[in-house]
Amino acid sequence: MSQQLNCNNVIEYDEVSSTNEMAEKMLSEEKPAEGTVIVARFQQKGRGTGSNTWESRAGENLLFSMILQPGKIKPEEQFVLNKMVSLAVMETVLSFAPGKDITIKWPNDIYAGKKKIAGILTKNIISGDAIKNSIIGIGLNVNQVHFSHELPNPVSLKMLTGKTFDLKEVLHHLCKQMEYFYNMVIQGQFHTLDKLYLENLLHYGKKAKYKAQGKYFWGKICGVSNFGHLQVKEKNIIHEFDMKEIEYLFD
Questions:
Q1: Are both 215 and 107 inside the same structural domain?
Q2: pTM reported for the whole predicted model
Q3: Which CATH number belongs to the domain containing residue 122 in this structure?
Q4: pLDDT tens per residue, range 56-102
């Protein structure tokens, strides 16, 4: 594992199927430097978690993937990478939209109030008892103001602030935040990352409404397991949920 992440190797494309696919192809054909960033003005097949898609108009938002080589991170510890990326994206949004209510929505979205401003898609390539490579895909809504009606709750930096932003400036800032939080991972500061993640987690410690297994209930998020499962306390019972097993309900 490198001692310090450096994201100076930025590869730009006008249009790709997806930046994560380009990163996978690159890893299969060569040995790109850790911190290599693949950025595109437009993705033909932008993806979210599972079967979700990511909508973005060409040249209006930030779409990129970063290649990491977290060789000392064990597979059972891999959610720490999700935490560090979520914190990096959240801090970036706060830097360009100060004073706004920006939180992390478990497991991999960044919210402004009740609206989604960014999504994260991580793919870890495991070799033996270590993570050989990680591909971190990030979509951040920056300058887009018109979205498909099929999307339930999108928002962008421009919609929050009324300003138009330089995508390269936003990318540079986000890469610096990634370097900062990834170096915390390298240094084994898992407890600090856990604390920061929970402090900024949407609905953490607050009573909110959810839906799981076809039933509605009120509960409080009380933690996230080492495996990344959401822990929600309902009365005196703590339930654990994997991705897609629980739905947040907003008024």
A1: no
A2: 0.92
A3: 3.30.930.10
A4: 677 899 999 999 999 889 999 999 999 999 999 999 999 999 999 99
CA R_g for the chain: 18
Distance CA 199, CA 150 (A): 31
3-state SS class at 231: strand
Euclidean distance between CA atoms 37 and 67, whole angstroms:
7
Number of DSSP helices (H) and strands (E) in the chain, helices first? 5, 12
* Structural domain for 108, as ranges: 10-186
Name residues whose C-beta falls within 8 Å of residue 40's C-beta, 6 or more positions apart in sequence: 12, 13, 14, 15, 16, 19, 22, 63, 64
Please say whether the beta carbons of 225 and 234 come within 8 A: no
- Which is nearest to 76 in space by CA: 130, 120, 127, 122? 130
Same domain, residue pair 120 and 231: no
Q: Token digits for 218?
A: 């009120």
